[in-house]
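Fold these two proteins, one after the other.
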Amino acid sequence: MSDKFDAGMQVRRRVLGDAHVDRAEAAKTPFDEPFQTLITEGAWGTVWASDGITPRERSMITLALLAATGNFEEIAMHIRATARTGASKTDVLEAFQHVAIYAGVPRANHALKIAKATYAEMEETQE
């Protein structure tokens, strides 16, 4: 594999956790392997590996973009990642408030609903 892949896998594991990445890797098939490589090299090995902004800021931007574009399926995963990136609940709320103003209240409202449920699950597993 490439250096970008190796760097991407390290960042991906640091942000999402080994258990998540192990599950994703186990589910990979020959059909989607090229796509998974693209994501690992591009998203994780280039964008998330950049030191231009902090992981906390990157989490906030990612969550806002996911909500603003209506890509709700990955919000829970990125909420769970905030435990590793340092983005607080207040940070996430601030990001979704921006979404409400600039992309629409319904999208921000739905993202908040997912975030609340995910935070509740996270707190439940800590007990």
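Now the second one:
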Amino acid sequence: MFKKLLGMNKKFLVVLVLLIGVFLSFSTVKTMAYLDSPGFCQNCHTMKSVYTSFVDSTHAELQCNDCHLPHKSEVGKLFFKGRAGMTHIYFNTLGTEKIPDVIEATARTKGIMNDNCISCHKSTLSNVSHDAKDSCISCHKTVPHGKGFKDDHYNKPPVSGELLENKGGF
């Protein structure tokens, strides 16, 4: 078969290879974009409330992975995405009894989300003091996920000294 390919018109082979390359590139980019989308993420039953609250937020125009994946390198992003994806596949197939009622971000993911907040909101950070806080989500946990994630404590005024004691967090 390889000899038949080499015997073909070289111009035809070049055009064929280019078309296959364009098709694979386009389909890969489209697939990756879909896998980053909130529409894909909400397919898991545990993400329904997360998705519902997200579309009601000020960040609804973003993709889930704009916040939840590292962006320093494409390789790091793909590795993290693959690792997280395999974990999600496990929990949604073999480990369904281990899925918690409330999904919490891991320490690694919290660090990534904080880096992404800072990356997008640099101008805010230069205009507003944030020196008493550990991370963006310690105060702004409910921002990207709107109404559904605002707990009872959210709308209550802080007790005197509470913000500094908790470094602004809940």
